[in-house]
TrEMBL record:
Residues 115-168 are annotated as: Disordered. Coiled coil: none annotated. Keywords: Glycoprotein, Metal-binding, Signal. GO terms for cellular component: plasma membrane. The lineage of its organism: Eukaryota, Viridiplantae, Streptophyta, Embryophyta, Tracheophyta. Residues 21-119 form the Phytocyanin domain. Residues 126-162 have a biased composition (Pro residues). InterPro entries: Cupredoxin, Phytocyanin-like, Phytocyanin_dom. The keyword Glycoprotein applies. CDD domains: Phytocyanin. This is Phytocyanin domain-containing protein. Pfam families: Cu_bind_like. GO terms for molecular function: electron transfer activity; metal ion binding. It comes from Handroanthus impetiginosus.
Amino acid sequence: MAKAIAFLLLLLLAPAAYAQTTHTVGDSRGWNTGVDYNDWASDQTFTTGDTLVFNYDSSHAVTEVNQADYQNCNTGNPINSYSSSPTNISLTNSTTRYFICPTPNHCSQGMKLTVTVSGGSTSPTGSPPNPGSPKPSPPGTPPRTPPSTTTPPSTTTPPPPAGDATSILGKRSSLMVGISVVLGALLGLMG
């Protein structure tokens, strides 16, 4: 009986170990000036299904922009704009997303965040261009001679992300350890 109860507890608690993560941007400092968001993001693992939470006061807001607007702190062409704190943003796709504060000079003072989301499936809409294949010539131009040698495509796989198991698993492994300890204690008491 004790083993059956422990097994049922394991079935109930195990899915929580794989639940997606809620990332509070800037941790206790929130979405504010004076925070190094590159440093903060480097300690995070963003996965499809996770949520970003931006906490800020009325002097700030959150604007999602494209990469060029991010680099230039341009808020003139927002993808999304938010002005109500806390702002919760679901990370639904494997992609890179860019966020800035639209308050004048805040972005240029470092109030900007890049989030690279991994996980999920991505299906390209077309084939990537082959760097060794010639581009078609406009009508009326003589055909180009292809290069005499071509470089084969790279077949190396990138190395796994740096960090310990906790950072790679998005800090979920500590929950699994906790569940294991509790179940071990229950089995010891009941067995």
